[in-house]
Amino acid sequence: MDDRPSSHAVGVSLCDSAPLLWRLEDLRTVRSQGLVGALLGSLPRTPRQNVRLGRPLLLLEEEETLLRERQAAAAGYQQDGRGAELRLQVQQHQEDQQRSYEEQSVLALEDRKSALLRAMTSSHTESVAGALDGALQGRLEALDRSFTFPCSALAVQLSTARAGLSYCPEARAVLRADRPIRGRDELSCDAARYQVFRDLRGRGFYLTSAGKFGGDFLVYPGDPLRFHAHFIAVCVSEHESVGLLDLLSVARLGSNVKKTVLLCSPGPDGRVLYTSLQWSGMV
């Protein structure tokens, strides 16, 4: 795979703090650079299954940081005159959202009134229906005064016909100028983890998350579609003390899943010290 910087501006969308890639061209670009990520979305034709997943692609924070460095080395983010157009689109989107919220608020209120009417009239006979009219009217008026539609219940309509999956080069220039990948100061990933990630990726390994294996990264000798992971990378400080039971448990876990545990200790000079652990049984 080609690990050289690319001049292609990858559009990263942030959902809270999660970096997502939506466009197929962006997925091909990061894959060509050895960045794997994890697919999250369901397929349009088979949505009720999770065996095969599709876009978006969730990047590790270390993958996003490495991608940012490569993009910055290839081409700096140059401002142009298209930022005003993007801001106008954002403003229009916010206005559409507010209009949709107001419409849905009216519909939700009407639905609540209908439910109240059904609840108060369905279980009573005609003889007591008249007595309930005053109480029902009071309940409806109180509902008009106190009803609030929560923003979390807002149904959001996605315009899939214009999902941005075929942006033109001019639009990508806007992405590069006005939606850059987050700067280093805004990243929450640990510096030691990123140093290990960059070093292993520079050696030609592919890396994915290893949370379910009790480590930081799963290390593959090649593309994860073709190879099983050979190592479980655990990032520890060079001078950090590790308990004996912790060493035994992670070594035993690596043996059970047929992987070698790597203790990765980044140094101040940029080099990473690797120590392998293999379970050989109790003496």
Concise overview:
The protein has 283 residues and is of the alpha+beta class.
SSE blueprint and pairings:
Layout: E1 13-15, E2 18-21, H1 24-32, E3 38-42, E4 53-58, H2 61-74, H3 83-121, H4 126-146, H5 169-178, H6 191-202, E5 206-209, E6 217-220, E7 231-235, H7 244-256, E8 260-266, E9 272-277
Helix pairs in contact: 2-6, 3-4
Q: Would you give an account of this structure?
A:
The chain is α+β, with helices and mostly antiparallel strands. The chain is built from 7 helices and 9 strands, in the order ββαββαααααβββαββ. The strands form 2 sheets. Strands 5-6-7-8-9 form a 5-stranded mixed β-sheet. It has a 4-stranded antiparallel β-sheet with strand order 1-2-4-3. α2 packs across α6. The radius of gyration is 27 Å and the shape is elongated. The two termini are about 45 Å apart.
User: What are the segments in which pLDDT stays under 50 over at least 5 consecutive residues?
Assistant: 72-81, 160-167, 174-189
Which shape, going by the Cα principal axes? elongated
Beta-strand share of residues: 15-25%
What is the rounded Rg? Answer: 27 Å
This entry's quaternary arrangement is: single chain
Helical stretch count? 7
In total, the number of strands is: 9
Main beta sheet: strand number and arrangement?
A: 5 strands, mixed
The proportion of residues forming helix, as a percent range, comes to 40-55%
Question: What structural class should be given to the helix and strand makeup?
Answer: alpha+beta
Distance between the termini: 44 Å
Q: Taking all residues together, what is the mean pLDDT?
A: 76
**N-to-C order of helices and strands:** EEHEEHHHHHEEEHEE
Strand order of the largest sheet: 5-6-7-8-9
